[in-house]
Amino acid sequence: MRSVELLIVGAGPFGLAMAAQAQADGVDYLVVGKPMDFWRTNMPAGMFLRSACDWHLDPVGIHTIEAFLATRHQRPADVEPLSLEFYLDYACWFQEQKGLVIEPVLVERLDRIDGKFQAQMENGETIGVANVVLALGFGNFAHIPENLAALLPPGRYAHSKDLVDFAPLAGKRILIVGGRQSAFESAALLREAGAAHVHLCYRHPTPRFESSDWGRANRIVAGLADNPNWFRDLSDAEKDDINHWFWTEGRLKLEPWLWPRINQPNVTLWPQSQLADGQEQADGALQIRLESGASFLVDQVLFATGYEVEMGRVPLLARGNLLAELATSNGSPRLDEHLQTNIPGLFVTSIPAVQDFGLFFGFTISARLSAQLMGRGIQGRLANRRTTTTEYTG
Questions:
Q1: Structural domain of residue 368, as residue ranges?
Q2: Residue 393, pLDDT above cutoff 50
Q3: Residue 30: which region, alpha, beta or left (left: phi > 0; alpha: psi -120 to 50)?
């Protein structure tokens, strides 16, 4: 059985940043997963990121987006807003420049046996592991409200992560349920892909088409590197204030370059509305009725209703023996200052860390910070093990 000091599960931004940190620390590591797979397969071509060039992946600050631009003789102004294609190119370059060790296989199940982890891979191999980082991203946590799904016939709706090829929807009428950036950008891309009409239905007023100011977020994330307990030590009221501010910047604003693409005759906005019913017609169309009484026909419903963490939905945990031991709150793992769970050596980052570290961890702005904090925790565990081994052998 092969063994490594650190297994990083997931090769998205958080996993790549963690691999770079482990490499810099001289830790024996292995990343498993398909590089940037969620970004490649669950995000639509043509989308743009909300981040700028300062949200790079390198925790040691060498292979930044600016450094990547220098190889292309470009400046930030030449590429912002960052396209999905550009960011994927950067991630590929980052991986190559670092020489990161990534095996494109998935973990079938993760167990802890006699205090050590065993990862059963989909190819049948078993890997013995001292430390595990779960950098799983969003894929397992797609959320469709059950009460809304129950209003529609089976098979007539999808989550936005599962419907990203818009070409087959040319000439179709679409209802998008959701009113944040991803919903509006999907509407723009659908219209540009030839959709006949796109409706957006959301419970709140239409967000402002206004550039977000991430300056405060950058300062907070930089501060967390020195004081990782800062957010968790805040009062509930202070946490609510920070999260509300971040929510305002990240969710109550839409990028201004979207408005000309949305302000079109075949895009209809239904603010402060909610789905009430969806009945299939004889010709296959869906008769949609909103709680306001408005009614219209569509061919497909797309839920852009975000993500909700529930660790029991992670297949490799559900199949293994860790879930019963894993301490959670509201579905999210309870984490220490190094993003370590109550199970020694098991670290979790990205969106499952939002509850303990703030909404920043749902954005790539936190990938470098996450790697630094977990790196310290892993280094501490390895140092303790070396000390214990020396004392025992001495």
A1: 2-141+307-393
A2: no
A3: beta
